[in-house]
Request: fold
Amino acid sequence: MTDTKHNVYWNQNYTASKYAFDTTRKSGAIAEALKSGAADVNLVDPGAFAERAAELIRKVHDPGYVDAVMGGVPERLATSQGFDWDPGIPIMAVAHSAGLVAGVTELLSGDGRVAGSLSSGLHHARAGRGAGFCTFNGLAVAAEAGLGLGAERILVLDLDAHCGGGTRSLTDPDTVVQVDVATAHFDEWMPSGQAALLFANAENYLDQVESALESADRAGPFDLVLYNAGMDPVTDSRVSAEDITTREERVATWRANRNYRLVYSMAGGYTSSQTSMRQLCDLHLETVRAFA
Ligand SMILES: [Zn+2]
Reply:
């Protein structure tokens, strides 16, 4: 019998840093929920891809910055994403990329069409420094992995609340088309060619997502889609949880109708006095469930 469940990548290393923040902690809570049956998926350890991820990180990022994250010095660079450095930081940062590399490798070398990684903290990281809680740019690393495995056209669909300027700075617009819907201007970038950066608010959010998918269709077809499924439009920008559920169903249907290979990551989404870790996990599980 064929196993129709998709793989969701995660291991303990995702939460290896002593520095506690949603980006370095929430994947553990989401993994616990998946172990308890919150969605019909396989939770898979991407540990075997850590070495490959580390190689790709060195292709995407400047060696001096990678060395700083690995060793903790110079401190200015090692903490540039906004976290205090500890020996778990590089383990955590490589693991988040490894999950995406595992997903890309699985889809481009087999029959699978969807994979997820409980990775977060990706799209703001630049070649020579971290930014906005992002240490290594997992989307750019995953795109590099895809190009190495023969993908010729890749779509980065970034629906985090913030713009993905880091990813844009690290990828070639001729092969990696980026389409963002943002609800905040942080890390804004200048679209060119077939790329699109749309701004949305709570009122027109789903309309803008629809426009983004139409932009993607004009630029397609694609050999691989990397979907950065941020929940901070809800936690930071008052987009409703109902609209986010609809968004995930819409993106999943869009993918299924084109039979695209798609790897998703969790991206932003933050706890606050209004949002508990449980509520944040439930939001991210909407992504997993929509693709399950
Ligand atoms: Zn964000």
Q: What stands out?
A: The chain has eleven helices and eight strands. The chain has one domain: 7-291. The chain has a mean pLDDT of 96.
